[in-house]
Amino acid sequence: MLERLVRMLVKEFIQVLRNPRMRAVLFVMPVAQVIIIGYAVSTDVRHVPMAVYDLDRTPASRDLISWFEGSGCFDVVRRIASEAEIREVLDTGEAKAVLRLNRGFAETLAGAGSARAQFLLDGSDSNTASVALSYAANLSADFNRSILAQRFSRTAGVRLEAEPVGLVSRAWFNANLDSRHYFVPGVLAMLVAVITVILSSMSIVREREIGTMEQIMVTPIGRLEFILGKTIPFAVIGFVDVALIALITVFWFRVPMLGFPPILFLGTALYLLSTLGVGLFISTVSATQQQAMMTAFFFMLPAFMLSGFVYPIANMPLVVQALTYLNPLRYYLVIIRGVFLKGLGLQVLWPQMLALTLLGSAMLLLAAGRFRKTMS
Amino acid sequence: MSLPSAGTSAVTLRDLERKFGEFVAVNRISLEVRQGEIFGFLGPNGAGKSTTIRMLCGLLEPTGGQGTVAGLDIRTQREEIKRHIGYMSQKFSLYDDLTVEENIDFFSGIYSVPRARKEARKAWVLDMANLQDHRRTRTGLLPAGWKQRLSLGCALLHEPRMLFLDEPTSGVDPLTRRAFWDLIYRMASEGVTVFVTTHYMEEAEYCDRLALIYRGELVALGTPAEMKDSLMADQVLCVTTDRSHEALGVAAAVAGVRDAALFGRDIHLMTGDAEALAPRLRRTLEEAGFQVGTVARITPSLEDVFVSLIEARDRAEGAQKEFKV
Q1: Are B62 and B145 contained in the same domain?
Q2: B259 and B136 in a common domain
Q3: How far is C-alpha A240 from the chain's CA centre?
Q4: Together in a domain, A32 and A63
Q5: Is A5 or A371 the better-scoring residue by pLDDT?
Q6: DSSP state of A170
Q7: Chain B CB within 8 Å of residue A214 CB
Q8: How many structural domains are present in chain A?
Q9: Which residue range is the domain that position A218 belongs to?
Q10: Which of B61, B87, B106 sits opposite A7 (nearest CB)?
Q11: Is the residue at A53 inside a domain?
Q12: Using the beta-carbon criterion (under 8 Å), do A7 and B82 form an inter-chain contact?
């Protein structure tokens, strides 16, 4: 029994690791991808290109413009001289926002009225637009406060008292709200899923396609031995990849690792049960490798979308939220972020661990049950 | 119904049947294979050869009938059967990306060859397949004939008493095929029962006994000699003339000739009674101005036998269909 399993493992490892291209796909590609994605995936909005349409041309209008520029959130890329140009810069994407100050801005500001500044946004990228908008709102509030302060000190000779309510906010676990801290551990979950699901979904169907399956089926090898022989190597590869990516996350991207790393690996082991179970299941129901590849793809796309990796689960319709409970990625993301950013341990993460264990065993049993040593 | 005692038979089949939906791939086949013989299973492509062999090896479940292999039931003891047989499919099915030695080690482990025997068995396979100098070669790089030998070796690692070969020589050249058959003889001489499917007629001649299967049914069973002597409804007359091509039409028109065909420079005639036809044929041809050499009855080849059996079966089925309409 043990000998047959060992032989299976040796064979699988030779087959996976002998091919140099395969080695690159398994160990170089994830590393390269996490680095590239780590730099690319960021929802932080900085240096929004902005055009300025200043009809007032007074010290006051220039003050407001330089207030925006000085914040680092906006870069003035163009000064516009006509109405038509507003459309042009937004159409071409040269600027994502336009700040328009009408004639009389300074006059109104100096008088009693409230001076109007128009802020136009390219809303086609709604994420960037809403972030830019909140920056602009904050900037104008700050600007108001500084003007009021000046007026008070000039007219009354007293300093402006504190605002009635001053909100002092501080984000825990990610003090700078650095989206990289949030995303890079998520990329880990994604890459490991891609590698293990695709590898295992190819495994059995590949042998069927090249004809070796028939030869294996006339040997006395047991179903369990065969399934384990097909699972363990990919689990090991998954672990190596998790370790590699975790090292890059911590030492390259400086994402804090506050928790106890073995918790991460325990979570990974349980997560791999599910991804390998899904992969093997796909492999037992597919007739060709191409079919398996497509099926794996159609599993993974919704798995990513509905995991909370990008879109918050709490915002989804209830039916879809219910579906996400079947998604292993959902639990693994909580574990990863918990271990990296919050330093959580088993006392908090056990429900996720339990869910992964149940999901994973169910998928693996289903796959093993589908696998027969006979042809249909 | 009890099965015949399996002590002396390597394989016994009774009314074995396999349907795929409505399609009957194997239609109630009964036969027996004796210990130690080379049993040929012949038939055109799609006749049901592979389906039968897969049922015998435990790869497919029969939908009807009974059978034993090495005394074990093919319905209930499939896993047990797998320990006692060797199987080689028509498709090369070792791992191309493993070396010769790695393939041997893999199958040796899967078949649980005892540790003490492993080295000896590996040496035996390398020697038998003549691959001692290529043990570290990737299997995928070997020529087709060498791969076949290695496949055979891997199927024999656990020293089975029964060997199933499903079209083992399809796609290899005649010399390699001949060499492969030398190996099969060697196995048989060591007491291994060989069950081989083929559609090559010259391979059929090498077998001890043959079964002809056509459209899932057993059409004939016997030794090659028996088949040629007794199973052929027609006799074959061989005629040599000076202008065979032109003479063919004249000969075909002679009463009592069922079929006429050119074989090289000779004419082969199928007839119910060669003795009576010979003088009549010679006279007719000479009167038509041909120089006639010999007119002699010859032993039909296996190919003649099978073609005539299958055509007879087709005619019978055709008649049946017409009758039904």
Answers
A1: yes
A2: no
A3: 21
A4: no
A5: A5
A6: -
A7: yes
A8: 2
A9: 2-41+178-370
A10: B106
A11: yes
A12: no
